[in-house]
Design brief:
Largest sheet: 2 strands, antiparallel
Distance between the termini: 41 Å
Structural class: mainly alpha
InterPro entries: Cat_transpt, TrkH
Transmembrane segments: 12-33, 74-98, 191-216, 228-247, 293-325, 346-367, 373-393, 405-425
Helix content: 55-70%
Pfam family, one: TrkH
Strand content: under 5%
Number of strands: 2
Protein name: K+ transporter Trk
Number of domains: 1
Organism: Paenibacillus segetis
Length: 444
């Protein structure tokens, strides 16, 4: 049994690869040079921080801006970059740099890591991923640096610009401002709000969609995948902003005291950030319960396939909604943008959603017995960890050791995806050579 398990399939390589990066990061963060006080960080806290960075989440038990030294912050930034783009993408970068041939096994791993249906053009896609990431992060770092040069020394502004451009593009909620404040001091700042939301959205829609958009001038058409991602992403952002604006308009602890412009910026920012980013410009714990629950739904949906984000993904949610409407209308086929989807896609969407829902429910139930906080806070934290979001209602630092380990495992499962973990941990099944007779039962 053990020998069979170690015949490493692509899902197993991804699981072990991410685990190795997390463990390496945890050991580096435990070093005295990683902390401002020179002490030793407990292994559980180091493991939690490394997992959060590698899984591009942003949940923290130690304040990144004040507790960690420059060395520790750079380690966290590198973990975010490697975790966001994927360790196989980074390995391919070195292979291309040293002009090594990309083997068939490497291509299979890249196909699994990028959630692609085939290996065709996979190396070309990786080149685009690396180029797009470098260009977007560099431009954002420049804009951040110019803006923050008015608030701090130029060298510090440049450092902050680089760190936050990497963190936000990879949809990780880490920040260096200290005091667990995130971006609350820039609630009405147009530059910080726009650049951050642009990074979150571009990192969350996926590299395939970005490639489609850039090539649109030549091809004059978008793929079905890109159409679904862009339409659902836009719909969720607009709907989220409207709901948050209405629910929080009179809340004196969030949007209430703000001007109209700041209210609009804040509503849109808090609608974008549950797409697995984790930054916030208002106190999440001060939001009304209806808003918090609505954000739980947004976090569960998450970003899009082939992106730096987590969640069940926008395409999965679109298929589920489409299947419901098709059933209501009495149609046997699911048609989206004049394309019929195979039954296999619908089954996969249902499987991913049910596995994810099961994981979130079980983790929330277990944490409700180990942590002395409200259930809504626990459900929010659990969904944030699963969706690799990083938003919190303020309970992360209060978690018990067991709670930190459980949330770490949830972030790990959320980054890789429950289906990938199921494939990695389960035995490989051969193709069935027969079918059972069809049965009937009453539903609904």
């Amino acid at each position: 049994m053990i020998s069979k398990w170690f015949k490493l399939s692509p899902p197993r390589v991804l699981v072990l690869g991410f685990a190795a990066i997390i463990l390496t990061g945890a050991l580096l963060l435990m070093l005295p040079i990683s902390h401002t006080n020179g002490g030793t960080l407990p292994f559980v806290d180091a493991l939690f921080t490394s997992t959060s960075a590698t899984c591009v989440t942003g949940l923290i038990v130690r304040d990144t801006g004040t507790y960690f030294s420059t060395f520790g912050q750079v380690v966290i930034m590198l973990l975010i970059q490697v975790g966001g783009l994927g360790f196989m993408t980074m390995a391919t970068l070195f292979s291309l740099a040293f002009k090594r041939k990309i083997s068939l096994k490497d291509r299979l791993l890249l196909q699994e890591a990028m959630n692609q249906n085939s290996m065709e053009g996979i190396v070309r896609l990786i080149r685009k991923v690396l180029m797009y990431s470098l260009v977007i992060e560099s431009c954002a770092a420049i804009l951040y640096s110019i803006r923050w040069a008015f608030d701090m020394p130029l060298g510090r502004a440049i450092y902050f610009g680089i760190f936050h451009s990497v963190a936000m593009f990879n949809n990780a909620g880490f920040d260096l401002f200290g005091g667990f404040r995130s971006l609350t001091m820039y609630v009405g700042d147009p530059i910080v709000n726009f650049v951050t939301m642009f990074l979150i959205v571009t990192g969350g829609i996926g590299f395939i969609v970005m490639s489609d958009l850039i090539d649109f001038r030549n091809r004059r058409r978008l793929s079905l995948h890109s159409k679904v991602v862009l339409s659902m992403t836009s719909a969720l952002i607009i709907l989220g902003a409207i709901v948050i604006f209405i629910f929080e308009f009179t809340n004196t602890k969030t949007l209430g005291p703000l001007s109209w412009g700041e209210k609009i910026w804040s509503a849109f920012f808090q609608s974008v950030t549950p797409r697995t980013a984790g930054a916030n410009t208002v106190d999440i714990g001060a939001l009304r319960q209806a808003t918090q629950f609505f954000m739980i739904i947004l976090m569960f949906i998450g970003a899009s396939p082939g992106s730096t984000g987590g969640g069940v993904k926008t395409t999965t949610f679109t298929i589920l909604i489409g299947a419901v409407f098709s059933m209501i209308r009495g149609r046997s086929d699911l048609v989206i943008f004049r394309y019929r989807l195979a039954q296999e896609r619908i089954f996969k969407a249902v499987t991913i959603t049910m596995l994810s829902l099961f994981l979130v429910i079980v983790v929330a139930m277990v944490l409700s017995t180990t942590e002395d906080v409200s259930f809504l806070s626990i459900l929010f934290e659990t969904t944030s960890a699963f969706g690799t979001v990083g938003l919190t209602m303020g309970i992360t630092g209060k978690l018990t050791v067991i709670g930190k380990i459980i949330i770490s495992l949830t972030m790990f499962a959320g980054r890789l995806g429950p289906l990938t973990l199921a494939y990695a941990l389960g035995p490989k099944k051969g193709k069935e050579l027969y079918r059972y007779p069809e049965g009937k039962m009453i539903i609904g």
